[in-house]
Every structure is written in C-alpha cells, then in structure tokens.
Specification:
Helix content is 11%, strand content 45%. The chain has one domain (26-223): Jelly Rolls. It is mainly beta. The strands form 3 sheets. Strands 1, 3, 4, 6, 11, 12 and 14 form a 7-stranded antiparallel sheet that branches.
C-alpha cells in the first residue's frame, strides 16, 4: 500500500510538472545563494541556532558559502504580499555534516530534517550518515520518504554521498552528503512562512559530532491558467 501511495504521488508530481511547463506561470519570489552579504538577512528571513543564539552564521563548504552550520536551528522565511497563485515550489540544497543517526541507530531518537509551511509540518524525515558511499549501505533512514512511510538505505535520495566531513569526520570522504530538495505544495495565501530546521541529538555546542548547512534557497509561485 505504501508503494502504491508513493507511486501515485510521483505520477501526480510528474503530471503537474508537465502541465506547469506548458501552461502555468512560475514566478520566483525568493532566491538566496548566501554568497553576497547585500542579499542576506533582509527583513523577511532570520537564521537561528539554539546553541549560540546568533542571527547570522555562514560556512565555506564544497566551494561555496552556505548558511550554517547548525545543530538544532535553521531558517525562518516570511514573505508578504504574494500575488494570486495556486501552488508554491520550494527548493534548497541541504548539507548533512558528520555523524547523523537515522532509524537504525537511535530508534525514536532519529536525527531529522523538518519543513514547516505556515506553521504546519509538511515534511519530517530521518537521515543517517556513516560515511558509506554506495547505495547498498547497512544502516537505514526514512529519507526521501516521510518518517513512517518507508525504510530506505543510507544514500537513498542523496545527490552526492562523497563530500568530505567537517569535524567528527573531518576531511574523510563521505563525511558530508548533499541533498537537493524540491517539492510542490498547494498554497493560495498572500503571505507565506517557511521554516527549514533539524532535530539532531547530541551535536554539542561545538557542532563537531554532527551539523548541517543550507544553500541555494528558492521559492516560486505557480499560477494555473483560468
């Protein structure tokens, strides 16, 4: 039953993308690659971290500047005065750094990625990183499915599993992973609040055991023809 549901969802997204490419209007309402100080931290977004309470934090990683690293924390984005639309597309690069512990290692204490829209949770998924770089790893995670939908191998849905670690696995290939997330959501309000965060355990104040960072945040609205 789970396979059927996922397959239907995938088919629907492919069908919708086909319709969007032909008939709908897609408008980018927010983009940030965090490379320029001038475009970072306007009045509409705030980065936060439960460890140091700083309002801005950046790292240089994978030949780019990223937002983070974070432990428990993330990004809240508020956009107002959005023109009429029926859908939003959210996309971003999510870097997993060092030792994340998914379904197989923590039971109910998984390290998870969280996405909320207008204060409602729309995505909640566990991620594991043991430096395994193949697609036949021993440990499991729910990603790219939501928690409770499926148990997947460690690198399922991972764009690049072979990036170097930053602290606990410093310099070791496979110590970091890149996730490229993109998904469509129904949305019609003129205001939008997006929260991208993580719940990771035992990161410590130095974020050495595990952490994460964000890049290439893009939000677009999609308007279907009348």
């Amino acid at each position: 039953m789970q396979i059927f549901r996922v397959s239907v969802l995938a088919f629907f997204i492919l069908f919708l993308n086909s319709c969007i490419s032909q008939d709908a209007e897609e408008l980018t309402i927010y983009f940030n690659d965090y490379e320029s100080d001038e475009q970072v931290y306007t009045a509409i977004d705030t980065a936060y971290s439960s460890y140091d309470k700083i309002s801005e934090v950046f790292s240089n990683f994978n030949k780019t500047r990223t937002l983070g690293r974070f432990g428990t924390g993330g990004l809240t984005l508020n956009i107002e005065g959005i023109e009429e639309h029926q859908w939003i597309r959210i996309s971003f690069d999510f870097y997993v750094h060092d030792k994340w512990e998914g379904n197989g290692l923590r039971g109910n204490g998984q390290d998870v990625i969280i996405l909320n829209i207008d204060k409602r949770n729309v995505y909640f998924s566990s991620i594991v990183n043991t430096k395994c770089q193949t697609y036949d790893c021993e440990e499991i995670q729910s990603f790219p499915n939501r928690i409770g939908e499926a148990n997947n191998k460690e690198n399922a849905g991972i764009e690049d599993p072979s990036l170097p670690g930053v602290c606990f696995y410093k310099g070791e290939i496979g110590g970091s992973k890149l996730i490229r997330y993109t998904e469509l959501f129904q949305h019609t309000s003129t205001n939008l609040e997006i929260n991208i965060a993580a719940g990771i355990k035992d990161a410590g104040p130095d974020l050495c055991l595990k952490s994460w960072s964000l890049d290439n945040m893009k939000i677009s609205t999609i308007s279907l023809p009348e």
